[in-house]
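STRUCTURE:
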């Protein structure tokens, strides 16, 4: 496939971190702007620290579609399927508004604390092939199968234990979230493993392939649904069990997630005001140094 014939929409949700959000989008467009059609910017209806994103909205103009849901779900589990039938509720699920509104083949979903160092989208477009999505697969650091050295991101399709084997493995190699497995693992369909997902830090999804199998059109759960473990786990399981395939790609040479602290502290920073303000100050200086930002 010639990636120059492809077009990509971007889906980014922002809860706080306006300066880190700006760095994410400014560096993305600097390196990969040629592939991007629209940026769907979803501003959560509740915000910490009186976050103001207007300068980002103004900067990108017509290239940015701004949406602010009326409902704030945060990390609440999306269990009640009947509520998803209501657009107001469904569009409050992370990434769902751009999922439904995009008219492009590909959707790039990403966190608002990523620093792009090179043209990652080109690599994704050239590498996705026949897969339904590409990016880093799995949170292997918290998986008992990885601890037991019997599974890893590149071959997550090769290890398919039954329910009893998986639960025994979780007891033998307990991890931070294995105590939740009895509550979230379907005994009839225990694969993909609970820590398997296409990590939404920065991932490219083929909407033409997956949208027809994803609610509200298909039977699979919405992409951004948060169960007891994490965003996208249930969707990833549904897609795999419907026959979709996903490709693992280590994006580290091209992008850095949680780039200020380098310790995946994005969630922690929202509850630690000193850390939050420090990370935002670093991002502001980055905007000034690299992009001549005057704010």
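SEQUENCE:
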């Amino acid at each position: 496939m010639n990636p120059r014939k492809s077009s990509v929409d971007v889906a980014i949700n922002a809860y706080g971190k306006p300066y880190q959000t700006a760095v994410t989008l400014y560096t993305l467009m600097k390196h990969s702007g040629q592939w991007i059609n629209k940026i769907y910017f979803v501003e959560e209806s509740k915000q910490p620290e009186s976050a103001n994103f207007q300068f980002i909205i103004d900067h990108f103009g017509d290239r940015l579609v701004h949406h602010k849901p009326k409902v704030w779900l945060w990390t609440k589990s999306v269990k009640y399927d009947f509520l998803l039938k209501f657009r107001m509720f469904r569009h409050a699920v992370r990434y769902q508004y751009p999922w439904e509104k995009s008219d492009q083949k590909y959707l790039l979903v990403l966190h608002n604390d990523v620093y792009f160092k090179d043209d990652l989208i080109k690599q994704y477009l050239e590498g996705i092939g026949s897969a339904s999505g590409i990016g880093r697969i799995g949170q292997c650091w918290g998986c008992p199968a990885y601890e037991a050295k019997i599974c890893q991101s590149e071959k997550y399709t090769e290890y398919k234990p039954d329910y009893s084997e998986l639960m025994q493995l979780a007891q033998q190699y307990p991890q931070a979230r294995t105590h939740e497995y009895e509550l979230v693992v379907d005994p009839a369909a225990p694969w993909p493993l609970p820590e398997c997902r296409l990590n939404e830090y920065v991932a490219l999804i083929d909407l033409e392939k997956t949208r027809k199998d994803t609610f509200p059109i298909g039977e699979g759960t919405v992409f951004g649904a948060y169960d007891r473990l994490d965003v996208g786990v249930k969707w990833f399981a549904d897609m795999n069990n419907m026959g979709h395939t996903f490709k693992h790609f280590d994006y580290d040479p091209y992008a850095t997630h949680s780039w200020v602290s380098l310790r995946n502290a994005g969630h922690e920073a929202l509850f630690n005001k000193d850390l939050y303000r420090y990370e935002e100050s670093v991002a502001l200086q980055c905007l000034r140094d690299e992009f001549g930002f005057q704010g």
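REMARK: The first strand starts at residue 8 and ends at 14.
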